[in-house]
Every structure is written in C-alpha cells, then in structure tokens.
C-alpha cells in the first residue's frame, strides 16, 4: 500500500514514511470509525477495522494525533447527569425569582388511563424558603448559568442532556400496541400496587386467559385515534419519534401536602359513595407524579390502510425500512420527520403512482415542550424542527415520569385510604382496553401463533400473510355442473356426454357419463385463483364421446359477474335438450365489485373498552379528533 508522503525537512525517509502512515490511518479512522464501532470488518486488509485499531494503538503515544482521533467521538457521548444545587442566604434567594424547570410538574395529579395532567397539585410547590429565608439555588447551565430556586418539596434536580435527534420509526399493528407505546411515558410499574385488585384483568400476562388488557394509556388521545381507525379497517400505524431530555426532578419522600388537597380528602365520606369518590378522581386523577423527566418530544402517528397498500405492493414495514436506511445515511437524522423524505417519497410514488399524504392523510401529532406552533407553520421545514428542539431547553415539557397512587397519601389507619383505592381500581377497570383472543377470525384465516389476537393467512398468489389481496381483480372461480336433459348425440345409441368449460386459456371438464341422454354429473370444476379484467367471458362446450372422434354438440358463452348473492342457474342449449350449471366467482379478501376491482375494508375482530359492549361496533369518536392534534 502506498501512503501519502509528508515532506518535512530534517527527517529521514523512514521517519517521513512512518508519519505518513500514521496520518493516513488517522484519516481512515476519523472517516470510518463509527462503522467500526457498530460492526466488525474482519479481513486481512490494512484498511479493515482490525488494521485501523492496530494502527491507532501505535499512534496513541503522540498526543496531537491522539486528540485529532478521539475528540470527534467524545462529542458523540451524552452528557452525564449533573447537579449544581447549594444552599444560599436570603439575600441571594431574593435576587433569583425563577424556579428550576420541572417544579410545576412534581406532585401534579394525573389520570393513568388517559395520561392527562389534571392541573391539580397534591403538594405545595410554591414554598421555597427555609429557616431565616434561606433557599436552595441550582445553576442551570442550559439557561446560560442562571441560578434558579428549588421548591422545598423537590430534590435531586439534575441536568441530563440526552438527545435522540435521529428520528426513530416503529410499526404498530393494533390499537393496543399504540396504547402500550403511549404507556412508555410512565417510568415505573404502578400496577404492582393493585396486583390483587387487577389480577382478573391481567390473566393474559399470567397465561390463564385468552384476553389482552391495557390499562395505562387506554384512553390517551393516541390510543383513541388508533382505536377509531381499527374499527373502520385493518390499519398499520407508522410511529415516528424524536426526543431530547434535559432535566429531571424528584419529589420528597413525605412532601408537604397542598391545603386544597387536604380539604378535598377531608370531604371524602367514611362510607363508600361511588359518586363522591368519582368526583375526587375527576379533579385529581388516579395518581400523582413523584419523579419527572423534562425536555422535548415530537411524535407523529400516521394510520396506513394495510390492505389498500398491499394492492400496490407496499407495506408499512417497507416504508419503515426506507426511512431507517435514509436516516442512517444522512447527517441530519431529522430530515423528513413530518413528511416522507425525498428518497422514500420517490419510492412511494413509483409504487403507488400518487403522493403518500394525498392517499393516507389521516395522522395524529403530539408535541411536548418548546414553542409548539413553530412545527405547524411549515411542517416540512427541517430548520424549524431543529429550532424547536432548541426551545425545549428553556421551555421543557414532560416526556416521562413515575407515579404513585393518590390513596397512598392517606394514613394507613384512615379507612378512606382503602375506599379511595377501591374507587381508583374500579375507575381503571372500567376504562381498560380489552381484546378477546377467542373471537373467531374470518374464513380462511387463523390466529397468529406468536400473537394470538391477530388474524393471519397463509400467503399465496392471492393474499399476503395479513389476509390482504395483493392485486385487484383477484378472485376464486368454480363451475358446478348439475345435469343435462334430453340430449341427442348418436343415431343408434344414447349420448356419452361430457362438458368442457374454458376461461382465460384454462380448461376444465367433467367426467364422461356413457349411454345416458339425461346424465347427472353433480360435479364441481375448480379454476382456483383467477384475475378478472373487467369484461370476462367463459365458454361452455357440450360433447358426445365416440370411439374415433368426439362430436361437439353445442358451444355457449357467458359473462362472469363476481359476488352474486344467490346461485343463478344457467343453461346451455344444443339442438336437443340442455345442460344445467351455475358458477361461483368470489372476490379475494378486501376486494369487491362485479370484477373485484374495488377495495373493501376489512372487518376483523377488534378491541373494545370495558365499559362498552363489544358487539355495538365502533364508537363514534370522530368529533374528538382533528387530522393534527396538538397535545399539551
């Protein structure tokens, strides 16, 4: 291998060659280092990862080149969580009016089913003064080193600058998958507090039942959006997310409760009154936040008609793969976050002959933190997305949190503690999202072995594994030949009759019934899967079998129409008598119309809410949504 020469006076040729070699490998490492860290290039070339690593080890002794190599990688490492909080005298406290980010989240009530912040606080976050007017001030490096007050009920405030700036893409198959994704905001397993009370609803997790249940986020805006779509058709949900975390804060173990919360507790009856306790839950929710993580997150959920895409040879998984690949190749991973990026958009146009968002514009957007309206002034402007992420440092939103049940704030001896717990459990159960895995799948499909609540098909030339037709016009064709009457084919003997059917260069025939002018075949002739073109004609031939050559008694023609509701008997009339038959032409799943060219939405087993009857069909939720939802 020839290395670039470094010409330098006063050095020997060997020294110059060593310097050139080191510089060359440093440049290779800087250029290819990230790939080396992600996967192994084990070959014998000097430019392999093994060669690069060996060369770098030899170079490490030289500090200048070591820094050139190492610094780019140090910049990729996330900042560790830091805390710069210390006690200050009263004079300093009065100089700094602002609180640390997150102070207005800890202790706030939240509804665990809707993930809705209630705006009602169980603790007093306004108090910050300690003895003699002292306070705890924290230096916020992300806000130009400002000193900010820590409320008395807060502790362990930290800067955590951790960013996932490259958009991550997910495909969810069910509304329950979307609900589980929304539930990831909760950082702890709150269900352990209600293990016995909720046990009958999570038998699926214990392997004792064929029912799946979702409690957390069952009524979140994202879940309701997906649930509504799931009752209309078979959908896949493409979910894209970016997220940055900047701060975290924890609530004290035994915080000072707010006066209005204490008064609300005092008003609760000592005997169980569902209405009174429900009123309390309506105000404060089911839980309160005891640890919060702050920053910014944008989440984009687009509902894709699974089977409509299949007709164009496209899937949500292929779209995800394209977006993943393009993000990995681009320096700016945010490119195309709110829209298909250029290359994936071209792929979509080639496959569908149309624009992605013209065909599938049903979407749900949630933005947390920062100046949200920036993203909606021009959602395709990636510079605005970058600028929005910067604003989340100064106006962070709530991206994840841990919770405790409200009933735990009451004394163990207080009988209302268990009554409130009972009311909370009842409320959560009523609002749970359930899916009965014993619901039968449509004919020809079966429950997936790995996810028993999803109906699947064995892929063939007509349908894919998701039971979607892969081409318009696909259908199943069968002719049923019943009998013939008063045939006449021979002068001196009875007819040895058989019947032929022709369709698109395919032929099927009945067996020969010898010596009978009134034969009964009662025979089904299957053509199997066919493709209809719009004007589809079949041909019938009635034959008399002879020793030397068969005689054609009659030819008849007819046009095929799919999805005829009743059997229509047809007759083909030779010179004498007739043959009686009918055909069945059944469109492939998700197709309809006389030639099976029209799309038909899928109606598969769906999930339902505990407080609704699963047989009532889809809930009317359309008034609760806009195409784009700005979620606080």
Characteristic terms for this protein:
28% strand; wide pore channel activity; cytolysis; 632 residues; membrane; 17 helices; disulfide bond; Perforin-1_pore-forming; disordered C terminus; elongated; four-stranded antiparallel beta sheet; alpha+beta
Folded structure, characterized:
Keywords: Cytolysis, Disulfide bond, Membrane, Secreted, Signal. One of its GO terms (molecular function) is wide pore channel activity. This protein is α+β, with helices and mostly antiparallel strands. Helices cover 27% and strands 28% of the residues. It contains 17 helices and 25 strands. The strands form seven sheets. Strands 2, 3, 6, 8, 9, 10 and 11 form a seven-stranded antiparallel beta sheet that branches. Strands 18-15-22-21 form a four-stranded antiparallel beta sheet, with no helix packed on it. α5 packs antiparallel against α8 (221-230). The longest helix is centred in the first third of the chain and has 26 residues, at 13-38. Residues 1-11, 33-48, 58-79, 204-208 and 614-632 have low confidence and may be disordered.
